[in-house]
């Protein structure tokens, strides 16, 4: 029955190709035929390669659906023999099939299985490009799926042409187990998209990154084979297996895989193997739960450690797949036992570098969360208790240690409370002094803010209006503009570099990330270059947009679209605006500045609106967060702004306080002290200069600002 169904499907696909090639069909019929072809290809894959859980239910559902389609939509079409195909399909709908779950594939079958899945992935992409309504989320999904398809096709090529047949079969067991597990997950994904369309949900949109994680595991295993067994291969020395940064979100999806393996219910699971795997999985989950990437500055070290974590996860996957009831083989028992012991050894080996690295770190008080008084210790104990209640199942090992630690911390708290009580009167005196000094300073700040607002309003009213072509627009006025005659002190090199990035380099679309902390001058430099005549004349269109921490995507799209086209807001929805913006930028050399981006998601929402026309278009992104810069960059490396040097600080401070006058000698020392407090940040310098210049000749006023204002700024804003 299975063979007959396969033959009838192949014959039907040939008939459909011949009918379509005749050219006598309207567009509606072509769409119907293509949808039928998709369903037939899917059925063909899973009739022969039935490795997906609940495959009989899925095949029955697919067959039932196809019988209905054939009876209602294709009856009476000449040259299309429906009866021959309908007969085996009806057998599936009755459940009268003798298919059994085939657990393992040989080399040639595995290659063909991946070929079939490649065709099904093509159908998934085609379905979403042609049948589903476009949106930013769908476009992002399609982009990720194209990456999955490309990488899977390449892994299939490496396996079929460079590995299978050239390496002893026993040494390929790990790789083939991972390849089949990856392929089965791709198969489940294709079935969910093409069969359960009505149940298409957010989980499907999140599936491609997980598939990429499985692809990385396969590639790491291939890398081990090439470096060990195929050293003579030219591919071993190519860029394919050079150390590369693991994809974003890899640790998250590796965590999901480990949770899946942890929850697997296995029969005939030997105790010693179960214990070894449980210990390994629990350790890896604790490691991944800790989100080490937030604490590690050495990217190469982290990449190396994550590869070791991935290797252990691959070993666990191999053992569990081998122990499935449908694939258990008594001859493999000793091999699996040895593998489980190796997993435990690898886990112990991984603990050593992690522990050594953390011991080498030197923590300062500023790295700990600030809490009132001794509540920091209470917070620490609370965090330890949270770890005990986590899903890592390590409480039976850790609880005695945490109990001892809690007792020691309680004792330490009592001692520190006694010491602090003797210092409380001193603290009260200091607090009183600060409290009494601050009102004067705060009043000055309020007055300066009022004057700045007044000046800003006047500047806007008097700002000259430029007449430009509809395709060119200067940035909107709410983006902290800098006048063309305003000197940028200390950033001449950074400014010149930005100009080079915008005018030279790749002919493809490039993103230039400018990274620096708040007040460091990112926006000032970007604005200065943005308004330069040579830049304005180089690009067909320009747009400047501020990305707030809680941005509204529709407003961002409308803001950019209005600057690019000069059109007003017509109330279009996000997906329509996105499509309009992309079409309006097609064929134009454009410069877009996305200022103060806080979240990688903002870039993911906007990036598909920026087409690559091969005409040296550029997008500049300013951000305080290095991870955002890494996420958005294309060809240009992160552009980190330097802090101003002491000489540059003094120069800017003198310029803002005294304009063209020289700094009086009697203020030289105190100005250096103020400059040091500004920590190299231009925005702080300008702000402080605005306060100082009200009594700029009084050294006592400089000292009061230095001693009182900066303590307030440190406390309130963390500068």
Automatic annotation (TrEMBL):
Keywords of this entry: ATP-binding, Leucine-rich repeat, Nucleotide-binding, Plant defense
Family matches, as InterPro entries: Apaf_helical, NB-ARC, P-loop_NTPase
Highest taxon above the source species: Eukaryota
GO biological process: defense response
Domain NB-ARC: 494-662
Record has ATP-binding as a keyword: yes
A GO molecular-function annotation: ADP binding
Record bears the keyword Cell cycle: no
Stated family: Belongs to the disease resistance NB-LRR family.
Protein's name in the database: NB-ARC domain-containing protein
Organism: Capsicum baccatum (Peruvian pepper)
